[in-house]
């Protein structure tokens, strides 16, 4: 297959949280290929961050769940670039925890990174986004956030449902500045989040389970989500705001409701 890349984002400054690994990494590389300058906010992946810097990304170590660190990152970006064109709120963690094993600390940490992090980054960087006439925000939610069930994901789903409602409300509030706000809700994507620390056999067992949950009988790759993010961030999506695009291979349990 021949893929043609356009320079859709030449001169654009794109803040990508968690842009060092998995889905965020594919998003960063997609923007790099299309002429943007990604500003990658990352938590700990020093080596990955260094490699992205060599490719032309601007990297800032910043825990998105720490408002002061986010504010400092905003100041650095303001001094360096003076504007932001696109924000991709991708950083996230998944703590699997059945409801009956509720652990407040783990829950609060997940909520702080996934949901508060999205709020902090959006709030702090908003003044820079308002300096351009066609700012864009793309939030990474999850199909869990629209109710797709999986063992132990109740609290994770809550954090992602919060991101979905935030997306819709922000689209409403920020439309007057020409800012579009959309979300992508991925299904099961092969990254450290889903396969990290698993041996070959266990990884294949999980792939098989999740393949069988989709009508397309396949699992997702980070690029499958990055492609949707780049589309939503592009001029081609200029008439789309307040939407959630589910990219999950077509979950059988969501597509078999009888009417
Ligand atoms: P991943 O491979 O585990 O990567 C997570 C990324 O988030 C890393 O770059 C990590 O930075 C960053 N991060 C974590 N905590 C952070 C913090 N406090 N501050 C800044 N950055 C932080 O995960 P992934 O699968 O790519 O997931 C990316 C997003 O997609 C998440 O929001 C996740 O919930 C969502 N999602 C994933 C799936 C899936 O099946 N994989 C499905 C639905 C939704 P470091 O590299 O520095 O640690």
The CATH level-2 architecture is identified as 3-Layer(aba) Sandwich
Q: What is the CATH top level name? A: Alpha Beta
Choose one word for the global shape: globular
Strand content: 5-15%
What's the order of the H and E elements? Answer: EHEHEHEHEHEHHHEH
Helix content: 40-55%
Number of beta strands: 7
Average pLDDT, to the nearest integer? 97
| Small molecules held by this entry | NADP nicotinamide-adenine-dinucleotide phosphate
For the biggest β-sheet, the strand order reads 3-2-1-4-5-6-7
Question: What is the straight-line distance between the termini?
Answer: 39 Å
User: For the report, how would you describe the main beta sheet?
Assistant: 7 strands, parallel
Give the low-confidence spans. none
Q: Would you identify the CATH H-level superfamily?
A: NAD(P)-binding Rossmann-like Domain
CATH fold category name: Rossmann fold
| Discrete helix count | 9
**Structural class category:** alpha/beta
GO molecular function: oxidoreductase activity, acting on the CH-OH group of donors, NAD or NADP as acceptor; quinone binding
Keywords: Oxidoreductase
Family: Belongs to the short-chain dehydrogenases/reductases (SDR) family.
InterPro entries: NAD(P)-bd_dom_sf (IPR036291), SDR_fam (IPR002347)
């Amino acid at each position: 297959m021949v893929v043609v890349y356009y320079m859709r984002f030449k001169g654009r400054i794109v803040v990508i949280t968690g842009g060092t690994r998995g889905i965020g990494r594919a998003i960063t590389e997609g923007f790099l290929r299309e002429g943007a300058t990604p500003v990658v906010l990352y938590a700990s992946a020093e080596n990955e961050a260094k490699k992205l810097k060599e490719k032309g990304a601007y990297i800032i170590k910043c825990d998105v769940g720490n408002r002061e660190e986010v504010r400092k990152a905003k100041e650095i970006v303001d001094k360096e670039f003076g504007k932001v064109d696109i924000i991709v709120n991708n950083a996230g963690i998944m703590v699997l925890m059945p409801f009956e094993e509720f652990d407040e600390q783990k829950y609060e940490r997940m909520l702080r990174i996934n949901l508060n992090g999205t709020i902090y980054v959006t709030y702090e960087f908003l003044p820079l986004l308002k300096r351009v006439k066609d700012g864009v925000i793309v939030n990474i939610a999850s199909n869990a956030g629209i109710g797709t069930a999986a063992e132990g994901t109740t609290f994770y789903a809550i954090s992602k449902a919060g991101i979905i409602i935030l997306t819709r409300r922000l689209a409403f509030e920020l439309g007057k500045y020409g800012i579009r706000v959309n979300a992508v809700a991925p299904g099961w994507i092969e990254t450290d989040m889903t396969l990290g620390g698993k041996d070959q056999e266990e990884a294949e067992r999980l792939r098989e389970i999740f393949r069988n949950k989709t009508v397309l009988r396949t699992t997702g790759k980070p690029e499958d989500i990055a492609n949707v993010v780049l589309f939503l961030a592009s001029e081609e999506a200029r008439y789309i705001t307040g939407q959630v695009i589910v990219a999950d291979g077509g979950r059988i349990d969501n597509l078999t409701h009888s009417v």
